[in-house]
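protein-glutamine gamma-glutamyltransferase, pasting as requested.
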Amino acid sequence: IAATQPSTNWHLKENAREHHTSKFSNEELIVRRGQTFTITLNGTERPEQNLIFIAETGPKPSKATRTLATFDISSSVSKEGWSAVQQSSSSNSVSISISSPQNAVIGRYRLSVQSGSSSPASLGTFVLLFNPWSSGDDVFMPNKAECEEYVLEEFGIIFAGNKNHISSFGWNFGQFQGDILNICLSIMDRSLYYRQDPVTDVSHRHDPRYLGRVLSAMVNGNDDQGVVLGNWSGKYEGGKNPSSWTGSGEILQSWKKSGFKPVKYGQCWVFAAVLTTVLRCLGIPTRTITNFSSAHDADGNLRVDEFYDADGNHLERGSDSVWNFHVWNESWFTRNDLGPSYSGWQVLDATPQEQSGGIYQCGPASRHAVKEGDVELDYDVPFVFAEVNADCMYWNYDSATGKKTLIFSKSTEIGDSISTKAVGRDDRVDVTSDYKYEEGSAKERDVFKKARKKLGLGDKFDPTAPKLEEIEQTPDISGKFKVAGSLEVGKDLNLLLVLENLKSDAKTVKVNMTAWSTLYTRRRINEIWKDSISVTLAPKEEKQFPIKIKYPEYQQQLTTDKAIQVTALCHVEDGIQVLVQRNIALDNPDIDIQVLGEAKVNKEVVVEVTFTNPINAEVKDCVLQVEGSDLLQGILELRIPPLKASEKSSTKFKLIPSEVGPKHLLVNFSCDRFADIKTFKMVNVIN
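Structure tokens follow.
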């Protein structure tokens, strides 16, 4: 006789509270593995009869792949597998406490119950996630404040600019909003790994190593119709400029709405921010990391070669490059494959730079392995090691003869001020010492040599490089660019070229100078200015040469990355060439947010955003974009009338906060002269 269909009380509120899943807005049970949750079955006849539960996930559930579990009611929670313990019962209902193993496959499960000889009755579905609060989980994070930040926090700060001038902007990860969990689950089901072999793929979803690698491939659109399409051309027609996004929600929703076509366009921080959202949503502690002067070593020789012509123009030769900054991820989990010292933070990078195993994916690379130069360990440690450690070689290239001459090499240039957001505060924390020993120290050079040796690069440079004695030639003069005055879009750029004669006889120098607007990857886009001067320097003399680049000269040429590269190639008579270079990051003018009054749950509160046009011309096409998890639904877009020179605009709008606690409001202002002026404000919402 078929049993009557029991109805299920999932105790959503109580279970969510116990499992740190209250922030999800779904009407479905969402719990974490290795921890009990309680359900009540109503309408079960003779509940004392032996009930058998069936939990299954994936397309072809089986016990062999650990995607199917059948378990009856026992007297205590099982440490190994799934188990059910009866809590209480009445004449027609029974409360059961169910627990999953600490290494269970994560994802959406179907739960059914069988009573006696009747066929199984479906109880519904629930979602199982990683559990960083549980000591037996691979992602266990002992520090509760870190769990709060790296799993539950929906706001982040991403660091950008360059090593001389670090800037930052807010990002709305929004991992608990709306449909994001379902989108994250469908990302897993659209990977190449799943398409090739769904059964095996699902059976590996207990392992954060595996999922981290798969998701690093899926967040970029290369190979697999993943979430975001990269574009580093400086031209973004047919999509959004990467610097215009302020959160992951809009990107993930667009991907789903378009029928899973890659969203246009992203650059490194977009890939890293979206991967943070997906991994935090699934319960893997994750953060974004910014590496300044980041090497992209395409040929794997732990060396980056940069080429310049005689005029000092930076040439795009070879596939190596140095980016002003690069953003990747760290996720926290154990490395049972490598041993305990390699557990903890693991580097994942979803930016499509180099293929790994035939597709654009990177990591997990143990951060400890990177620091110790253990480049033979899985996965992609040599690439990450080079990003923070590669040596830089600067060459003069003559296109007529094809001859290249080494100008100088530098081993302390790459991997500077490696940064992440502080736990529980909106501050920057420097983690450079977690990636490498102190630059220039004997230990740091030893690790570098060890890595070269393990990669089969030996102790010496490769044969195409110049002989060491050619490198050791000392220059006759030294030079540097100094910044005089502020670095702000809309203002003139004032620099000083400082040249010093290091010798005790006079030197004649011809200096060829150029300034180009670049992307943050230092890719040259437009020439802004060039000049050349001839200089005589008396013995040991230092001279300063002022350089002024007026706003109208660079305004049309600037990219939205607001980066300028200034170069002076100094040809010293009867001496070796000296290259002086500076990458400049300009700041946008300020924008201000004020919350007028107290922010209370479900009550309107007015916010005022003010901006003063700093330039001597009208700005038009002004748009304000506002977003913030738990402060407003989706994105608010406001058009603002044109602003005359020096005019101040004030825009007011209303918010209705939906949750108590510290929330972040993100604002992005754009007009025809200024792109993506961003700021954020913490709003403390009270009851």
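Note for the archive: The mean pLDDT is 93.
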